[in-house]
Amino acid sequence: MADIFGQALLDYQSGNYTEDIKTFSSLDEEDTIPLPYLFRGFDKMPILEQKALQLAKGKVLDIGCGAGNHALYLQKKGMDITGLDTSVGAIEVCKKRGVQNTISSSILDYTNVKYDTLLLLMNGIGLAGKLTDLSSFLQHLKSLLSPNGQILLDSSDIIYMFDQDEDGGVWVPNTGKYYGEVQFYMEYKGKKSLLFHWLYLDFNTLQNACLDNNLKCELVSEGEHYDYLAKLSIRS
């Protein structure tokens, strides 16, 4: 599979920035991911991301670390931080930017190490893919947590993308699956990625899934546009 995301990051890092990543989704929307945004510093991060980084403690794993923005910030604060990404290009960029500890792996293939904080930012819980896979995903994250560890994640309730009727009700198509399940592919410099599944979770659904998996789920903060930051921990 072509590492389109990694190639875009490498191009930007090497000063070869000519276009952004295009994304196409099952929501019938074409969008772009501006490459400069993927290299932002702390001051340009959304408030929820800043809050998550301020709450990070102990030994930290940044899951889906991308170009390493979060890892670099925590590293500069003297924290024990490791960046993990499936994208080989992303990990190469992290190393070029000075991230000291990196892992090139899928989170589901990564085992046997315990962390005090797992970061899943920029809607990182989306990696679960589908609602039916959320429980096994949460169980795997739990297996990477130290006894008093925490998972910090942000997500969005995409209910706002569906039509509202006059009394404020929302018309969600009856597709037989959860409305936050979206399929994407990316395009960059004429190359397309494979189709992949991504999960946007409303907070109540996350809470219920946590309850089923013996996890405590706290709402830390809400953003301005149906987004939120949550903290998960193992129930004692």
Automatic annotation (TrEMBL):
Keyword Nucleotide-binding: no
Entry keyword set: Methyltransferase, Transferase
GO molecular function ontology, one term from the record: methyltransferase activity
One record GO biological process: methylation
Name of this protein: Methyltransferase
